[in-house]
Predict the structure.
Amino acid sequence: MKKIFFDTEFTGLHQNTTLISIGLIAENGKEFYAEFADYDRTQVDDWIKENVIKNLVNNPKRVITGDTECIKQELKVWLYDVSSGEDLEMWSDCLSYDWVLFCQIFKHAFNIPKCVYYIPFDICTLFKIYGFDPDISREKFAGVTSTEKKHNSLHDAYVIKRCYEKLVNL
C-alpha cells in the first residue's frame, strides 16, 4: 500500500465544524492542497482567524480553491493518479476530525474513492507505540524548521510525513 499523509483545518472542535483547508502528501512527495470557499464563516473565532486563516497559502499556483464539490472532484483525480492502481493508506495526526471531514467531502464513508483503504492510521498511536509522549512537538521531533506555520494543512501533512519516516526508521 502507498501512504498518504494528510491534515485538515476546520472551523472548530465541534460536531458541525466545516473544512477550511486540506493538505495531502504522498510518499513520493506529490502534494495536494485545497482551500474551501464554502466553510461556515460564522463558526470562525479569534483563535481560528489568528492560527488558521492567517496561515492559508493564498498562492494560486499551489492551491486549489472552490466549494466542496469542486475540491472533491480534484481530490478524486489526485488520489487515483497517486495510487497508480494500488490502495492508499491514509495517515494523519489526531485523526478523529480529519478522517470524518475527509469522508464528509465525499458525503459518506462508503463514497470515498475505492483506492483509499477504509481504515485510517494515526501518528499519535505510532508515537505511543514507539515510547514517545503523543503530545510531543511534531516539528521538533521531525527536525522541521520552516517559514510556513503550524495549522497550515499542507505544512502539517509534511510534518506528519517526516514524523512517520523518522519513527519507522528508528
